[in-house]
Write a structure and sequence with these properties.
Elements lengths: L3 E12 L5 E12 L3 E5 L6 H8 L7 E6 L2 E2 L5 H11 E4 L11 H11 L6 H10 L15 H14 L4 E5 L7 H17 L3 E5 L3 H4 L4 E6 L2 E6 L1
Parallel strand pairs: 3-8, 3-9, 6-7, 7-8
Antiparallel strand pairs: 1-2, 1-4, 4-5, 9-10
Helix pairs in contact: 3-5, 4-5, 5-6
The chain binds adenosine-5'-triphosphate (ATP) and magnesium ion.
The site of adenosine-5'-triphosphate (ATP) has 13 residues, from strand 2 and helix 1.
């Protein structure tokens, strides 16, 4: 299909151990440019396992993954790290900001790690859109949970990645801030044509997405689109 920026074909993941856990079972998924997808499912159903594989932070036991048309399987570690830096943005439940850096410094960090310089005007515009312009020189410890999460969204968007993946990004926020974060992800998909995949157990948050996929016992089923 056209405009597919992220595709998983027959992805399985088994955690080996005394009793092996089949966390994902032959999942087929594709994500279009600019599409906002929510993934819902019970605790232990395999949501985080799937998201980590989509982010190339973990490898599938079987199956293939393509990001921006590039096949991830079999890539060397260095090539994979570069692909991840350039094409994947990740948003964590607990924000994962560096406490000794300001909001602005946190946001530009992935750009600098990739050996490039940021466009200050673009970063300022992004911070305005995300309603954190006033946090520019603040450290994470001086910011509210909502502000920290909006900063981590800015960091994920700053590199203009093929896909932004978020694991329970609203999990630590109250209803009002959670709604704002989900709305901003929706805005990013509309304004920046950003592909977004959000894991959530909150069906209200899932309503902000273009489509909802449900995962149960390691298998993905479509709920609505
Ligand atoms: N590192 C690991 N080693 C062994 N088993 C694991 C590991 N990580 C996850 N699992 C198991 O794989 C299954 C899927 O876990 P996963 O974390 O993907 O679920 P989840 O849907 O994200 O759950 P939650 O909503 O609680 O975050 C669970 O049975 C879990 O116990
Ligand atoms: Mg999880």
């Amino acid at each position: 299909m056209e405009d597919i920026v992220l595709e998983a074909k027959g992805i399985s993941r088994t955690y080996e151990g005394k009793v092996p856990v089949k966390a994902l079972k032959k999942c087929d998924l594709s994500f279009r440019k600019g599409e906002f997808t929510a993934i819902i499912g019970k605790s232990g159903s395999g949501k985080s396992t799937l998201l980590r594989i989509l982010a190339t932070l973990d490898l599938p036991s079987e199956g293939e993954l393509y990001i921006g048309g590039e096949k991830v399987n079999g890539m060397k570690d260095s090539a994979l790290a570069a692909l991840r830096r350039r094409k994947v943005g990740f948003i964590y439940q607990d924000y994962n900001l560096f406490p000794e850096y300001t909001a602005y410094e946190n946001i530009i960090m992935p750009i600098h790690l990739d050996g490039r310089r940021e466009d200050p005007e673009k970063i300022t515009e992004l911070m305005e859109k995300l309603n954190i312009a006033g946090c520019k020189d603040k450290f994470p410890g001086e910011m509210s949970g909502g502000e920290q999460q909006r900063t981590s969204i800015a960091r994920a968007l700053a590199t203009n990645p093929a896909v932004v993946l978020a694991d329970e990004p609203t999990g630590n926020l109250d209803v009002e801030n959670a709604g704002e974060v989900a709305q901003l992800l929706r805005l990013a998909s509309e304004v920046y044509n950003q592909t977004i995949v959000m894991v959530t157990h909150d069906s209200q948050m899932a309503e902000y997405a273009d489509r909802i996929l449900k995962i149960s016992d390691g298998c993905v089923e479509k709920v609505l689109s």
